[in-house]
Amino acid sequence: MNQKNQSKSFRSNFQISICHNNLTSAFIIYIFFLLSFQLYGQSGHSNKIDWKTLGNNDVRIIYPEMFKQDAQRVLAFIDRANQRFSDSLNFNIRPINIVLRGQTVIPNGYVGLGPWRSEFFMTPPQDQNFTGTGNWMDVLSIHEYRHVQQANYSNRSLVKVFHYLFGQGGWAIGKTIAVPNWFSEGDAVMAETKFTLNGRGRNPQFFALQRAILEEKGLPKFSLARNGSFKRVLPDHYLLGYTMCNYLESAFGTNVWARVLAKSASMPLFHPFKKSIENTTGLNFTDLYTSSFETLNHSFDEKMLPNQQQFTRLTKESKNPTFYEFPFYYNDDLYALKTSYNQIPQIVKINLEKDSVLAHPGITQEAFLSANENFICWTQFSRNPRFIYQEYSDIVLMDLKTSKEKIITHKGKYFSPHANRDGSKIVAVYRDSILKISLRIINAQNGAVLNDILFEKLENISFPRWLDEEHVVFAAQEKSMISLVKYNVRTNKLMILIGPSRHTINQINVYGDEIIFSSSASGIDNIFLLNSKNQIFICSNSKTGMYTPVKHNDTIVSSEIHANGSPLISFTPILETFEIKKDAETILPKTGPDLQDDSSDITISTRGQEGNFSRTGGFQLHSYVLNPDNVTPSVQLFYENLLGNIIGETTLLYNINEQKPLWQAGISLSSTYPVFGVNTSAGKRRSPLLKSDGKLENAEFREVNLGTDITVPLRYIRGNYSTTFNPLLRLQYKYISQVSTIFPLASDPTFFNLGIGFTLRNLKRTAYQNIRTKWGQELSINVQKGVTKLSTGWLNARGALYFPGIGKNHSIKIDVQYKQEDITNDYKYADNFQYHRGGTRFAASKARRASFEYMLPIIYPDFGWFDLIYFKRVSANFFADIAQYSVEDRKQKAYSLGTEIYFDNVHYNEYPINYGFRISHPIDNFVNQPIVFEALFGALF
């Protein structure tokens, strides 16, 4: 995993940050404002899955029936983890449910607070640098269960008060105040490394970017390292946390974090974790940060090989972070997969003046590209339009002679494809519906499977390559170790060429009868070569780390980690013989007791209690939060079941346009097709009434609704575009009361209402610096009509187009909206029309608005203030609104010009949030109005 990507490492849903203040109502509103952007309901698996359970007093595994063996292994490994972790955070363990997701292709896992559960996404990565050579499910078990123990151990004192007051969402808030995510993830990586013979603490790639930064730029300020940057490449909080956790444990023992967490949970809200470290150890936090990385830098020096060789940079230097991977030659020209902070991935022809674009590969679960003669291959991510947990990875083949792309497979789980020399066959890693792994030979013309070679004992296969027409080489993982093997597809004979060991063997490539690859065997990732006589040579002597090699004549080209990206480097191989040892050492000194053992020999536990699990099981109220919407701010209560397919919400909101409160509640069952939901609402309403004398008067009444929704939420991912389509059919029963006798509603206070509409979005994916999409379309249409003698009817339509601006991070948006509801109607629907910015709200039968927006970044400050707020980016949105409001034959035109300034900040060194202000100059019928200043909170682009 290169640092250009947003972190694909294990995520934790309870990472929600708070800015310090006194325990006042303003502070409570603020922290729930942050929380409202974190909580969400996950759903989207077929109701055909037969769910089972396996558990004990500490954990219950919820799994599809075909993954019983995996559930048994997870339970056994967590049992072992509890024994291993008993020296520190094994306190007051609250039982947790773990859901195994086997239909996904993106490797991940998380522990969530709101609701309290964990999910494991079971398909392992191809790149061993992601988490090391360990068994993927073992790594997930030990890492994620460490998060469980962290959350439980910190659930005391003030954290527990938040938990009692505001449910699991309050627990999440309290934990985030007390425990920064750098500790949560760093300590979990420590667990991987300390308690197994694998883990990222033994992976040189985990430290490669930090090594480059220390070499080229020195140690950055903690605020920069902690919060990241839009203009600089920085390691994530996993590396930051691991380095400081390791240093403090080495100095003060393995129980130091139990003492720190206990104090942090009971200290004041302003940086309790820092203060707790200082009170517990007497060590100043700045000194901790500096000393930790001085120790890390010293360990880097110890692993450097002598006799630096000469490298030639082949790619242009750029101020914007740029990453080149998977180079290949075609007609003696060099090509590569290129990504930068302001551009999505593209395949380019390398030129020191300006790269030329060959193709734009689509969204993929991992960066990958392979080449052979005239053909290149990659994979493309997609998912079932209805069920978000049913994902696919398919093969794309490109003929370099014609520059034509072809999707070879459909709805498959293929990884690391490689075409043979004439492009007639493709070899790829394949996972079936129960995640059994095989090597597949595929007809490149029609996608037919020519040979499916199942390897029962292997945990994973990575980077298969054609050696010749009969032989394929690949990295094979068995018992948490990696071997380089050669397989004869005609005779089915397997030969081990290198290994097994716990060193990575990654990104294999072939040059004639030679095999080159990147490996961690030297302590820093370098390029190695295996010749036809089975001799291993080390080819490079990198200071940081070299990856994705290709050999061309007598030179090797590879990607090398630098402080501002990963350029392509050319060098003459040193070709020194090398012996790859079995075990990998930790980069930093080991801490704590030596509890490491071979997890591959773990005995599968059958002590857990087995059972069936209902798809609706575990439904609970878990959180209560504030949602600071610009039109309808609200307090929300969230309900959800353990599988995330039943989601409920109760909301008390205030409609700013109508200046009236309203409460509403709803629940939806998303595992059905279509999705069914029921909803109800009640509250006061205010709508304009046109009186007989032609004057408008606001009429007030009370409204109660009871209804049902039917929708089919669909999401398509194809290439670089994501398309969502959500049609909706709603039937409501409305009861109107407390109405003045002169108001027509008084004569017929009840009626049925029918609503129909849809929302359609088609958006191109964005690069890291892109403020919003460069290409896209949005359209929503909603119609409401009452089945009653009363005059009713409401239409709202809105559309938007996105275009690229002048700069790479500039964006143009054209937005139009139309609303129609006759002002003389007996009943008025809730008003959610966006009026021209800064202007007056008009009561109208028809309202039209068109907006032009030009958005661009202004500055990337990378500046913090007392660890309270960190400014990463300031951007501007220049807008012009044109509106027309009509009542019968009268028309009111209105205009507004203005600027919106947005701040992308990190609050409390933890939580990214966007807000800003708007300056508008409204003009109604060519009459200038006073300039309006408005604050914007939680604004979404």
- Low-confidence sequence ranges: 1-43
Strand content: 35-45%
Q: What can be said about the biggest beta sheet? A: 19 strands, antiparallel
State the total count of DSSP E strands.
Answer: 52
Number of discrete helical segments:
11
- Note the gap between the termini: 28 Å
Specify Rg, calculated over alpha carbons. 30 Å
Based on secondary structure, the structural category is alpha+beta
Described by the principal axes of the CA atoms, the overall outline is globular
Mean pLDDT, rounded to whole units? 87
Secondary structure: helix percent: 10-25%
Structural account:
The chain is built from eleven helices and 52 strands. The chain is α+β, with helices and mostly antiparallel strands and 941 residues long. The strands form eight sheets. The protein has a 19-stranded antiparallel sheet that branches. A hairpin with a 2-residue loop joins β9 and β10. Mean pLDDT is 87; it is low at 1-43.
